[in-house]
Amino acid sequence: MGDEKSFHVYSAPGPLVFKKSDLKCMWPRWKQKFDIYMKATGKDKVVEEDIKIAIFLNFIGDDGLDVYNNLKLNEKKTLADVLKSFDEFCDPVKHECMETFAFNQLQQVEGQDFQSFLNQVIKQAKLCNFECTSCKSSYLDRMTKDRLVIGILDSTARQELLRMKDLTLEKAKEICLSVESSMINKSKIEAKSSEVGDNIDLLQHRRQPDNTGSNMTYNRYQKRNRAPNNAWERVGIDIAEVNKKQYLVLVDYYSSYIEVLRLNSMRSSEVIDKCKAVFARFGIPLEVRTDNGPCFSSNEFLTFAKNYGFQLITSSPRYSQSNGRVENAVKSVKNILTKCDDPFLGLLAYRNSAICADGYSPAELLMGRRLRDTLPCLLEDRQVVDHDGYKVWCEQKVKKQITNYNERHSASDLKPLALNDRVWIVDLKRYGIVKRESGEPRSFVVDTSSGEVRRNRKFLILAPDQMSSNNNKQQVMINQASNAPQDVKVLVLESSYVLAQPNEGNDDDDDEAFFIGYVVTHSHLM
């Protein structure tokens, strides 16, 4: 058998359509395919230029043949001359300014991968004639690199690029591809762990501790105070110290309006005189809330409250959280006094600043008008205060705050204390006996070896021996309930009472349940 020659079939470029609007971009690609075909088949080595031109015209199509017939070429034309003429026809005049403008507008869009954006930048840069023979480095690479830094969508990658002083185009490509890969992996990990995270949140919500029968000092549910109905109805008072100077701070619970007065001393008489001056301007409030400072807990201040006819409520010792409104006011006053060149203008600006969604300021809520300050204001900007709408906004805000607090701190009610219970006082680190419940919310008066003290329920833990004694009392109550008559069914309630109820067959006239004892247990039928 003779030697068999192997034949290779090469695909020729198809006809070029000259009527399309993107001919400028299609012609270079078609010419590249034609060059590849000529080299692959070895026809580029043909000496006769007429044969090369004939092959070109055979592939270019009818539209290209019409263009060729209209070209003005000399008789000794070559394939290179024909290609150059077609270059001028397909892209007659390069508008470098327009191409550069389009290059500078390139931005990576949402969902576009970096490689696609890079190809778009390089392709547009070649149309801008970024060539500089005198430059040490390629001007084209520099412009491409700068466009990548400016146009990349990921801010993390941009910060990494700007951090490098000797950034090159190759380094920019490597960094951008690395950041994009890490972000893709991160999104995949987050997608896989999102379901696990939801299950963990659900488990934490279900396992929130029930502290009703516990002896530990968990956070209690945030107590909701009755919102004041009118301005200057409830006022909080405290003392702020700034630069070794004392200031009396008064804040209205309704409007958050703040009054600040300099104190010459910390005596109760000095504080009372300043309060009288403020009350003479705005009226006497129904309720005043303070801490247990010496100037507020003195007999002189109690007499002042009695003579002026307002109720004085003091916060629990060591528990400033119960008087949070005035504590926030003190913080605002300290910022104004320390940061403002003119504290009076700073205080005026605070009183004119909106504090709610409706745009009402403390001055408008208290006085019904906006105070004139150094900022220009039109008379049309003044608005009538809708107090009903403001109260609704305050109600919704308080509900949201309480919900967030209770969820964030896993708050629940603590076990109630009874008289003569022996408790451990956390901050004093000693035992005491509960004497009575104080008039203030959640406060108890406890008798200790050094005298009586008042503490919030949060700081009181029932003594271990007291817990054991209460358990014995509960067992006695249950035993008494078990010895009830047969025609009586006993229901032990979780609400701390044992009720005996007559059975349906009992003919007694008294069909009401009667109290047997006091017990704390889970509800069950005996």
Sequence of strands across the biggest β-sheet: 3-2-1-4-5
Q: What is the CATH class of the largest domain?
A: Alpha Beta
CATH architecture of the largest domain: 2-Layer Sandwich
CATH topology of the largest domain: Nucleotidyltransferase, domain 5
GO biological process, one term: DNA integration
GO molecular function: nucleic acid binding
Pfam families: rve
Domain Integrase catalytic: 224-339
Walk me through this protein's architecture.
With about 525 residues, this protein is of the alpha+beta class. The chain folds into 5 domains: about 25-90, no CATH class; about 95-185, Non-ribosomal Peptide Synthetase Peptidyl Carrier Protein, Chain A; about 235-410, Ribonuclease H-like superfamily/Ribonuclease H (Nucleotidyltransferase, domain 5); about 420-460; about 465-525, no CATH class. It contains 16 helices and 14 strands. The protein has helices spanning about 25-40, 50-70, 80-90, 95-105, 115-125, 140-150, 155-165, 170-205, 270-280, 295, 300-310, 325-340, 345-350, 360-365, 385-410, 465-480; strands spanning about 235-240, 245-250, 260, 285-290, 310-315, 420-425, 430-435, 445-450, 450-455, 460, 490, 495-500, 515-520, 525. The strands form 3 sheets. It has a 5-stranded mixed beta sheet with strand order 3-2-1-4-5, with helices on both faces. Strand 1 (about 235-240) and strand 2 (about 245-250) form a beta hairpin. Mean pLDDT is about 75; it is low at about 210-220 and about 485-525.
Q: What can be said about this structure in brief?
A:
The protein is α+β, with helices and mostly antiparallel strands and 526 residues long. It contains 16 helices and 14 strands. The N and C termini lie far apart (110 Å).
